[in-house]
Amino acid sequence: MTPLLFLVGIALLFWLLLVRPQSRRQRELAHMQSTLEVGDEVMLTSGVYGTVRDLDDTVVHVEIATGVTIKVARGAVGQVVREDGPAPDATPEVSEEN
């Protein structure tokens, strides 16, 4: 009985420390990417900063310099940038449903 309880405890600890926080971050990122609006300042996952100029369901057109617009997948948007710099936790809290 004790070895089984130990294994269950290790599995629970693994889930609490690794799996649960990662799934929460994925939900927050998906929420942020789905609520993008034209005019938002964004940082792409490649580190490129720009302004959202057009949105489709899966594609975002980002202006990275005056007159230079690139077309990227929505998933390439890493975060929305505030006026005073990138915000590590700029995405709103997503209610956890268990």
UniProtKB/TrEMBL annotation:
Taxonomic superkingdom: Bacteria
Keyword Signal: no
Family: Belongs to the YajC family.
Xref: InterPro entries: Preprotein_translocase_YajC (IPR003849)
NCBIfam families reported for this sequence: yajC (TIGR00739)
Protein's membrane topology: Single-pass membrane protein
Gene Ontology annotations of biological process type: protein transport
Residue ranges crossing the lipid bilayer per the database entry: none
This protein's GO CC annotations: plasma membrane
Swiss-Prot/TrEMBL keywords: Cell membrane, Membrane, Protein transport, Translocation, Transmembrane, Transmembrane helix, Transport
Species in which this protein is naturally found: Nocardioides anomalus
Name under which the protein is recorded: Preprotein translocase subunit YajC
Subcellular location: Cell membrane
Major localization listed first in the record, in broad terms: membrane
Entries under Pfam families matching the protein: YajC
